Fold these 3 entries.
Entry 1:
Amino acid sequence: MTKNVNLWVDAELTWIFDDAWMRCVGQTDPVSLRGCDCWGGLDLSNVGDVTAFVLLFHENDRFQLLPFFWIPEDKTLEKVKKENINYDKWVAEGYVTVTPGNVVDYDFVKADILRVTAGYNLKSISYDRWNAS
């Protein structure tokens, strides 16, 4: 209801319990998934939000995710100062990539997506239609 008709709801039951979520902690070596089938999900942002692209694999009897994130370079320090979000640390650690300028550079993101998916058998990409012209 929230995602499709913008109707916020309160759920009495948790969808994924914390202990189940924590059993999923681990790292996937992207090289180990080379040549494997995968499906992508893309959520574009514009100015002050994060653009996200996630690859989903079902290999070795488990689901594995490879996430990628981008934020405009000029907004990184602003987010750190105003919102106390650790983007600078995440960029330095390689979890988030900055795009040049003060808005997300879609050509930059597209080139990154083409680069990271080149070694996988990408079946399709689903995306949020907002701003996905």
Entry 2:
Amino acid sequence: MATGVASVWVPVDDMDRAVTFYRDVLGLKLTDEQPQWSELDAGGLMIGLNAREGASQHADGGAVISFRPDDDIESEVDRLRAAGVNFTGEISDHEWGRIVPFKDSEGNDLQLYAPPKN
């Protein structure tokens, strides 16, 4: 039986660029940095940046990591856009919350998620 998520691995082409994005742009705490593997603390969830091997192909689709902004979602979108983040859509409202999709420095799908206000 699975009792929780231990970590999330994200494939990266350029470790330095990816570490800079996750640490400096998203504001996660870097806990380990190596040429082929780096780790960041995302509020108790370990995100591992895993260097791709040169022959590895990018895949369409796959996992999406959702981040919860500290402030309102609009403020975080403004902050990330000012840092050069590529948003692939606008904020959308749903009964289960609000999301906005964007890409990391390596082209992986990410999103901001804000729960519904009660």
Entry 3:
Amino acid sequence: MFEHISLMTLDSLQKCVFSFDSNCQEKPSEYISAVLELSALVTKRNQQITLHMDSLYHLIPDGWRFRRACRLVHDFTDSVIQERRRTLPDQGLDDLLKAKAKVKTLDFIDVLLLAKDEDGKELSDEDIRAEADTFMFAGHDTTASGLAWVLYNLARHPEHQERCRQEVRELLRDREPKEIEWDDLAQLPFLTMCIKESLRLHPPVTVISRRCTQDIVLPDGRVIPKGVICLISIFGTHHSPSVWPDPEVYDPFRFDPENTKETSPLAFIPFSAGPRNCIGQTFAMTEMKVVLALTLLSFRVLPAGEEPRRKPELILRAEGGLWLRVEPLSAGPQ
């Protein structure tokens, strides 16, 4: 599931970030290959402390490949930004972007071109490239992991899968599936609960680091000094029995609004929390809802093979891949 879904999320991001049709699910893409290679190289480097020094890393073949892939990715983003600026008509950037916004055709590059700070200063091309690249890298593998694991959990719980399917069918009963709209997504409460419970059980990002901006006094009186960098285990928080009873059980009803009234907002942190939380969490949740809804309308997902062992890398994967069986549903009424 990971390979297929990762290509789909990359395809979607290229459309939403750059308004570019990569069609990478049907044919090879040099840019997509570079993104995938960079992700693999970062994972490998992260696991070998001797490669953390740039001066050493750039002398070995992996370092050469890393720099070459970086250049390719940066050149692609730069060319999109420069082409967008070059082809602006005489009415000016602001007028063009506002006109595009009215017909909902703004992409991420447009939003960044339109952005200004409190002094009215625009982002530089380098700033825009950094933001776009962050969205591409942070947004494809994490969302792919979230989708793969929620499909796995629904495959293991057919009663929840069928309830999600019926919820989507009821919502779109008089329309074509491709007509799903933004406002529809708020009307899929059970499907949303299933996604959240999967993100609790299988968080795509298992650990984050934060620097303390002040002394932190722990319940036992010990103090974490200001300036110390702490590792925060998202996986550990989500699997702590003191936070979540029976933490290994997949139970979407944990996220029924009636059951979350007394839950701490920091008990569920798949996108981190606070001012440095995930910039793309709304985008990711939206994409997961749409993909899951349209998938369940057309297919039944079933378990395949042995239960996978969780494998935390940059994202949470499965040893040997995550294998599922997918059956097309009949075209007639269900």
